[in-house]
Amino acid sequence: MKDVAAAAGVALKTVSRVVNDEAGVNPATAARVQAAIERLGYRRNESARVLRGGRTATIGLVIEDVADPFYSEISRAVEDVALRHGSLVLSGSSREDPLRERELVLTFCDRRVDGLVIVPAGSDHDYLLPELDAGVAAVFADRPGGLEADTVLCDNVGGAHTGVTHLIRHGHRRIAFLGDDPSIFTAAERLRGYRRGLADAGLSADDSLVAMGPVEAAGAALDRMLTTPEPPTAVLTGNGRITVAVLRGTGHRPALVGFDDFELADVLSPAVTVVAQDPAGLGRTAAELLFRRLSGASGPVERIELPTRLIPRGSGELPP
Question: Strand, helix or coil at 150?
Fold first, then answer.
């Protein structure tokens, strides 16, 4: 800034006023300062500016896996909100490992992030207490954490209930459910919605039609069910990756409703009926809530649940 002042022949304070868009500078003088800035390639030190205000203008984002399109959309939405607030996002993937989640979060805190958006991999978040006491804001997204903190979720139970009910309305009574590891909050909630949908229709849940576990095993699990004396005529899949695994691995396909929309679902034959979440809305809502807290908003902890919607495309409307 001193070099700019010397090149423009003005006081340092004048350069400061021009850089910070303050009033009181003669237009001709301001133009001379701007010309010197461009000639010298001067850039304002944003880090120093925000640090003087007690902030670093960065937030941390921990998701499960950036390669998963669902979490990629969350990440992009968080970045869009952060950009509007003049902040950058440091992000990392936990890979469903609570220890890795903890290491990422604490690394971000060591970098003095102002706040955190966390998709929890575990349920113990006591390690966050000292950071929260130090003024770091935190919002849990997609799943609740192990602390009383702001949380943004999707309606997992209601979405699965809607998917099962849709299949029942098209004549199905033997409906399988393929879900992720039951220790994962979303997987357990969708299983609960599946069972509730059957119960509300007066149907008994058959545990032989439920398979929970790794995505890679989903296709084989359905194949086994289809070889039993009373095979399922329809299946509800617990997330987009499981849906894709079933589509790749099963020759004979029963009627299908997938939880989560995914790319090309509408161009397959038949096109895939889905219960769609709003991952962009999830990320946007979590980030906006975080920045409201960073702006000084107080009040009780919020728990926001976003709705899902059924998109009928053909696969879920096949008869038994």
Answer: strand
Report pLDDT for 50.
Answer: 47
What is the secondary structure of 162-199 as a DSSP string? HHHHHHHHTT---EEEEES-TTSHHHHHHHHHHHHHHH
Peptide bond into 312 cis (omega under 30): no
HSE value, Cβ hemisphere, 13 Å, CA-based, for 218: 25
Residues of the chain with CATH 3.40.50.2300: 55-154+279-306, 156-277+310-317
Domain 2-44 of CATH type 1.10.260.40: yes
3-class secondary-structure state, position 307:
coil
Strands 210-212 and 255-259: unpaired
d(CA 304, CA 296): 19
What is d(CA 293, CA 136) in angstroms, rounded to the nearest whole number?
Answer: 10
**How far apart are alpha carbons 283 and 118 in whole angstroms?**
10
Cα-based distances in Å from 111 to 54, 63, 93, 130: 14, 18, 17, 15
Amino acid identity at 57: A
Tell me the mean pLDDT in the region 113-124: 95
**In this predicted structure, what is the pLDDT of residue 46?**
47
This prediction has a pTM of: 0.81
- Give residue 73's pLDDT: 96
8 A C-beta contact, residue 113 and residue 90: yes
CA-closest candidate to residue 290, choices 73, 88, 82: 82
Q: Which CATH superfamily is domain 156-277+310-317 in?
A: Response regulator (3.40.50.2300)
Q: How far is the CA of 71 from the CAs of 15, 172, 235, 252, 275, in angstroms?
A: 43, 32, 24, 30, 17
Cα separation, 173 vs 200, in Å, equals: 13
| Rounded CA separation 162/81 (Å) | 31
C-alpha 153/C-alpha 209 separation (Å) is: 27
The CATH 1.10.260.40 domain(s) of the chain lie at 2-44
